[in-house]
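Board notes (copied after class):
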Amino acid sequence: MHPIPALGLGTFRLKEQQVIDSLRSGLELGYRHIDTAQIYGNEAQVGQAIAASGVARDELFVTTKIWTENLAADRLLPSLEDSLAKLRLAQLDLTLIHWPSPQDAIAVSDYLTTLLEAKRQGLTRQIGVSNFTIGHLRQAIDAVGAEQIATNQVEIHPFLQNRKLVDFARRHGIHLTAYMPLAYGKVMDEPVIRRIASAHRATPAQVALAWLLHQGFAVIPSSTQRANLASNRQALGLRLNAADLAAIAALDSGERLANPDFAPHWD
């Protein structure tokens, strides 16, 4: 299985020229992992930025996510082909189910076996899930096997550490990708994180990202600012000590930021 690069470029909420500029800066700075989704409405711009970058396709790791309206058997594969056309790619590196079917109207086994068929057809190199609870992960494992699930992309940051889910995923060998790793910027103002950052001559964002990377998660922060994109990459070299890790672990308050009305019942 091709490993998911530890640090990626998120594109959530980035539109039109904004996402093009962010990706241009990120790719120039050395980012090679790009995360988008059908619902973001920016796959065409992501494809445009990739094409203009001159970066070789085999150097990139590109992820998209299937939206809930496309989970039915007759819609999933055509929607993925449409995403590929917008992204100007022959194959995705990773395709995720963005959310479990609302109210489980469609069974996990139905759409995951269809997504596995997309892999067999060569539309995507790897498959995975996003926003899956332990219950949904159990169903996914039963449907396609844990070895087929490249990652579960979920909200994880110092204020929502998702420990039950993390423990379950680790027991089953399922990798995790942390989205919203900076909690919409809230980590910047957290006194504990600011103190740790000062001690390491780092930024609070670097500390939050380093904490996640230390746990083996991939992280996909986004930014429209080139300086922030460059700074975030430095988290790869930041080593936190045991006291730092314990202090951040104590910040968990279960504060969930991504909780739409169709979300599953969280663990």
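Comment from the instructor: The first strand starts at residue 9 and ends at 10. The beta strands are 9-10, 33-35, 61-66, 92-97, 124-130, 149-155, 176-179, 218-219.
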